[in-house]
Design goal:
Layout (H helix, E strand, L loop, with lengths): L7 H6 L3 H11 L2 H17 L4 H25 L1 H7 L5 H4 L4 H21 L2 H19 L8 H18 L5 E2 L1 H19 L3 H6 L5 H5 L1 H21 L7 H23 L5 H19 L5 E2 L2
Antiparallel strand pairs: 1-2
Helix pairs in contact: 3-4, 3-9, 3-15, 4-7, 4-8, 7-8, 8-9, 9-10, 10-13, 10-15, 13-14, 13-15, 14-15
Length: 295
């Protein structure tokens, strides 16, 4: 007698190749990985690094982001299974923790080769940034210091892009501050949808300790501060695009803060904060020519 889908016979046959491929994409945290990779690519082009360097930088960052995403779902597999996170490929059976572990290590090895190909100093800088993200996955996410890998790694990403470019330029201080604020704000915002599931499995990072209401206000506040730095800190008067983007970002951040304070269970603070983060990335790209300076 034929068995309905989802029975042991189907599970023995395993997921289809398409389902497995989709599982790897989802486990890589495709959206944030693409955003960070696009930021590195745009910054490299914006500072005039040249096509060859930009391709190398982009490939290194993409490999690093893939390793971070896959290691996250591999390390969190037991927690995700415990709370039944159906949106996770490991829980749905699309991929196994072992497969993710192997993919993460291969991506990390590729990241090391590609990063060091840009030069020993920028290469080591990028590997430290990726190492910070792995440290977050491995345990820092459950401590008061959960924000630190985001702040440090985002700032080091800017350092990597600038040092990998030809010439003797260094990243501007304002760019490092903005990147650190962007990373910290994105971290707090990104945890909002999963606060309860995380807490149920013993993960209590900074946002969890702050509580949903406070975290829903802190996230847009950090991101709004990053926007202010990006708009006002570069040399010269801000252009029309910078002013317009800054105003929109601040309005969105204020809205997120108000909703977060009055209706903390709403998903709006998360969505609005992510919109502010995206605008901050765009504004940072617009200001790319000022990201690098001659010491």
């Amino acid at each position: 007698m034929p068995q309905p889908p989802g029975t042991s016979a189907d599970r023995r046959s395993g997921p289809s190749a398409v389902a497995t491929a989709r599982g790897f994409v989802v486990a890589a945290h495709a959206a944030p990985a693409a955003l960070v990779t696009a930021l590195a690519c745009a910054l490299s082009l914006g500072i005039g690094a040249g096509a060859a360097t930009t391709v190398l930088v982009t490939a290194a960052v993409l490999a690093g982001q893939l390793s971070v995403g896959w290691s996250n779902d591999w390390i969190d597999a037991r927690r995700d299974l415990a709370v039944g996170r159906a949106d996770k490929p490991v829980v749905s059976g699309a991929v196994t923790p072992g497969a993710l572990r192997g993919a993460a290590l291969v991506a990390l090895a590729a990241c090391a080769v590609l990063s060091l190909a840009t030069g020993p100093v920028p290469g080591v800088v990028h590997l430290v940034a990726v190492g910070g993200a792995w440290a977050y996955n491995a345990g820092l996410k459950a401590t008061w210091w959960s924000w630190a890998p985001y702040a440090v790694s985002f700032a080091l990403l800017a350092v990597f892009v600038v040092l990998a470019a030809p010439g003797d330029r260094v990243p501007a201080g304002w760019a490092l501050a903005a990147a650190a604020l962007l990373g910290s704000g994105a971290h707090v915002a990104n945890t909002l949808p999963d606060l309860e599931d995380d807490a149920a499995t013993g993960v209590r990072g900074l946002p969890h300790r702050l509580g949903r209401r406070t975290a829903s206000v802190v996230a847009p506040a950090l991101l709004a501060t990053a926007v202010v730095v990006v708009v006002l800190a570069p040399a010269g008067a801000p252009g029309v695009a910078a002013w317009a983007g800054g105003v929109v970002a601040l309005v969105l951040a204020a809205s997120a803060g108000v909703v977060g304070a009055t209706r903390p269970r709403s998903r709006a603070p998360f969505a609005l904060s992510m919109a502010v983060a995206a605008l901050c990335v765009v504004l940072l790209v617009v200001a790319a020519p000022d990201v690098a300076r001659v010491p």
